[in-house]
Amino acid sequence: MGDKETCGLCWEDFWNYETPKVVVVKNRNLGIIYRIIQLVIIMYFVVYVFIIEKSYQERESAPESSVITKVKGIAITNSSLERKIWDVAEYIKPPEGGDIFSITVRTMTTPFQRLSTCPESDDVPGSECKSDLDCEAGEMDQLGNGIKTGRCVIFRDMNKTCEVEAWCPAENEINMRDSVLEGVQNLTLFIKNSINFPRFGFSKGNIQKSSKLNCTFDEDTNLYCPIFPIGFIAEKAGESFDNLREKGGVLGVIINWVCDLDKDASECNPQYSFRKLNSGYNFRHTKYFMENGVEYRTLTKVFGLRIDIIVHGEGSFLCDWILLTFMNKNDVYSEKKFEEVIKTGNTSTHNENGTTEQEVRPVLPQNCKHC
Questions:
Q1: How many helices (H) and strands (E) does the chain have?
Q2: Max alpha carbon distance in the chain (Å)?
Q3: 294 or 81: which leads in pLDDT
Q4: Among 88, 204, 231, 315, which has the highest number of CB atoms less than 10 A from its own CB?
Q5: pLDDT tens for residues 110-132?
Q6: Please, are residues 195 and 269 in contact by the beta-carbon 8 Å criterion?
Q7: How far apart, in whole angstroms, are the C-alpha atoms of residue 176 and residue 38?
Q8: Cα(364)–Cα(266) distance, integer angstroms
């Protein structure tokens, strides 16, 4: 068949009309299987999509949030040298009251350090030596306390380490004063949290106007009391205070707001949970002073209980399709939602500029196939 004949057939087929043919098979078994498949699909949409996932709702999963915290109470350290009272200005770092802070639970202090030469601590890997040949002058170990002088000196007893130029004496167990704070578990944490779902214009906080601030949080009886004992947080997170006092740690207070905004605002409540995020937490800080014209410092290694306030949230609200389809006042909603421009010969008017204006009227659902 030549190209001419092929083109002729294609041209004739182009003008043909096609329509699908429906075949009805009168077979009970096949019909039962067909209806079961239909029922499964319907049940999937009704149970999973609509009831479980609530896919008929619009969602916002990143609410705006602010957190303010305050810790109250005192702690005490008893050592062979002194008894010290710790207040909130000393044991809270940083003091601003943000969503991440630490409470001092133990300190190891190296007092009266000054710039000089001294034996390196034997806790530093590779610091031990037998002669000066083992100590390279000018070498600086990143895990050490200073710069090696090239001399091998006695550290304690018969143990020798390389001498370093540093803040002396170097930090080690011999020179440290160990102090553990007592009463930290009795301190109280105040948390003020506010959330906002800007998409839905909804805001709420974890403190009600009727809330009394001389209370203690209880999930069942005092949900809107924002005061948490530190010991309660550690217990709920599954961490013992003995471990925290020894090495410190990181605990999380998670506030979750899951709000179905189709319901009353009183149904949107915070849900608290408590987690152990990390074992061990410490940092160092110094205080400098002058004595007889020589600069000294006190080096303090702090073991702290760090608390992270973490806020999650999700708000959901009926979507436009539901409002247009099922609301009793869907005509009112549609008037605000749609407008139709109708061009007619008799309803045109002229504005002050002399141009023609067309009639604009709302489209009601019964007049619109797509509503």
A1: 7, 20
A2: 115
A3: 294
A4: 315
A5: 999 999 999 999 999 989 999 99
A6: no
A7: 76
A8: 34
